[in-house]
Design brief:
The complex is a heterodimer. Chain A is built from 19 helices and no strands. Chain A is mainly alpha-helical. Classes of the chains: A mainly alpha, B mainly alpha.
Chain lengths: 481, 46
């Protein structure tokens, strides 16, 4: 007889594939494929944004590092501030632009094919590296549920998400995200109710965890250095308003007002997702910490110790859903970077190569399949360096694009050359600093790579824009101001 | 004096300030909704 894990996972994967097949019928144009015809309202969009942000790694490492380092590890504050930046500076104008990808914004706002092409390369590299890491994490979760080997687990999960993204584009991503969101929150609710019965409420958890780990509830947690804590919060503020899948979902809003309405709803849902992680971290520290050999194992051990086989299978399915909800969005974005930004906007259209919408939908699907296969190969045979780079992939995006997005949408005087120096310099500095950190250069480890990267890209865009002419046509500026 | 058994500064960072920022977002969206409608009708976006 099949185990509860196999049964629940099988039903979940079948549902995802069904959504892919149904949504494939609606893919007639690239507008359908990349932004689902821009038909979403605020609640659907908010749920899809939360599902793609809250990935399996967030839950595994979130609970593990909260247990290890203290409640302050949870970054509610960073999310709230990052989303505030999106509400004030980005949401309305990005949606009004009506693009498909983040490089679309760079190309259109700064009249620059170079910025579009470079932006697309950064997105493709960082999203693919991140996708490889997330595909591997998904494989570990499926392995834990089913008893399959890691290789079989990666192949099973990846085949499903590659198929439904290639078939249904963003429409499939959003509807599977909604199903994944329901599974994630149901799994969290089940675990929370069970642990509440064992430990008691928040105050009881706080009292008990302080007895086993003094300082756990304090503002510096257990062993955080102030600079490391500040770096952590800066990383997540910057990382979350420059997430590529986030930008695309804003483009898919029904209109610019909907894009703006979506953000507070998404932010409130994110806080509802992250706040229980504080409780689970405390619970792991109280109940199972002696069995935990590495922080990433804390959450699975907590689930297995608190829930029976069926309940644990249900909670692990929520974790698998969280992992897949991010991998599908990243695959969609890597594909868009190649098919839309590089092939269509940088190669075909500037050279007057005319192709039909059906052709571009076919190219999009083939690209998704190609990137998906690369991600699977990467996840199966990845080197240690790739896995280490994953944790810096969002930092590279943030340092590269953050100032170009905030200043570009709020300051008319921003210069094209200044933006180029900011985007390229932010990426290069963060990438080099990340590699030095990985290879153990002592002085590089003092701050997170995003800090030097974002300082450079901010100073470059501000100072050079004050000195240099904008070099952007009035017609383009009038679209944004 | 904090919240849910947590000290004051942790309560502020983990619970109170994030909720206040969400409320600020709601207020900002509400405040701008009239301006948005006018702007986008002029631009023909909606």
């Amino acid at each position: 007889m099949a185990s509860p894990g196999i049964l629940i996972l099988g039903a979940y994967l079948a549902l995802m594939l069904l959504i892919g097949i149904i949504t494939s019928r609606y893919q007639k144009t690239t507008d359908d494929f990349w932004v689902a015809g821009r038909r979403f309202g605020p609640v659907v969009l908010a749920v899809a944004i939360v599902a793609s942000i809250a990935h399996g790694g967030t839950m595994l490492s979130g609970v593990g590092f909260t247990a290890l380092l203290g409640a302050i590890t949870v970054n509610n504050l960073s999310f709230a501030l990052g989303f505030l930046i999106v509400v004030v500076f980005l949401a309305r104008k990005l949606r009004a632009l009506g693009g498909y990808t983040l490089p679309d914004y760079l190309g259109e706002r700064f009249d620059s094919r170079f910025l579009r092409g470079f932006g697309a390369l950064v997105v493709i590299i960082s999203a693919t590296v991140y996708l490889i890491g997330q595909t591997r994490a998904m494989g570990f979760i499926i392995q834990g549920m089913t008893g399959l080997t890691l290789e079989q687990s990666i192949l099973l999960g990846a085949t499903i998400f590659i198929l439904y993204v290639a078939l249904g584009g963003l429409l499939a991503v959003v509807w599977t995200n909604i199903a994944q969101f329901i599974m994630m929150y149901a799994g969290l609710a089940l675990l929370y109710i069970t642990l509440y019965g064992k430990i008691g409420g928040w105050a009881a958890m706080a009292t008990k965890v302080e007895q086993v780990a003094p300082g756990w509830t304090s503002i510096t947690g257990v062993g955080w250095a102030p600079m490391a804590l500040i770096s952590w919060y800066v990383v997540w503020i910057v990382a979350y308003f420059t997430r590529v899948e986030f930008v695309t979902k804003l483009y898919a809003a029904r209109d610019p007002k909907v894009a703006r309405y979506t953000i507070p709803i998404a932010c409130a849902l994110i806080l509802l997702f992250f706040t229980p992680i504080i409780y689970f971290g405390g619970a792991a520290r109280i109940l199972v910490w002696s069995q935990v050999t590495s922080p990433d194992k804390a959450f699975p051990i907590l689930i297995n110790s608190a829930l029976g086989p069926m309940g644990a299978a249900f909670a692990f399915a929520g974790l698998a859903a969280a992992a897949m909800s991010t991998t599908d969005s990243l695959l969609h974005q890597s594909g868009a970077g190649i098919a839309h930004d590089i092939i269509r906007k940088c190669l075909f259209e500037p050279n007057k190569v005319k192709k039909s919408e059906e052709f571009y939908v076919r190219v999009s699907r083939v690209t998704i399949l190609g990137v998906g296969i690369i991600a699977v190969i990467g996840a199966l045979y990845t080197s240690e360096i790739i896995l280490k780079l994953v944790s810096y992939a969002v930092a590279m995006l943030g340092a590269s694009f953050g100032p170009a997005m905030v200043f570009g949408l709020s300051w008319k005087r921003v210069s094209k050359i200044a933006t180029g120096v900011s985007v390229v310099g932010g990426f290069v500095i963060t990438a080099i600093w990340s590699i030095m950190t990985i290879y153990g250069v002592t002085w590089a480890k003092i701050v997170h790579p995003v800090i030097p990267g974002i300082i450079f890209s901010t100073i470059a865009i501000v100072v050079l824009s004050l000195i240099l002419p904008t070099n952007i046509s009035e017609k383009t500026l009038n679209r944004f101001f | 004096m904090g919240l849910l058994g947590f000290p004051l500064y942790s309560s502020l960072a983990l619970f109170i300030v994030p909720i206040v920022i969400v409320l600020v977002q709601v207020w900002y969206v509400w405040k701008k909704s009239g301006e948005d409608e006018e702007f986008f009708r002029e631009e023909g976006v909606i």
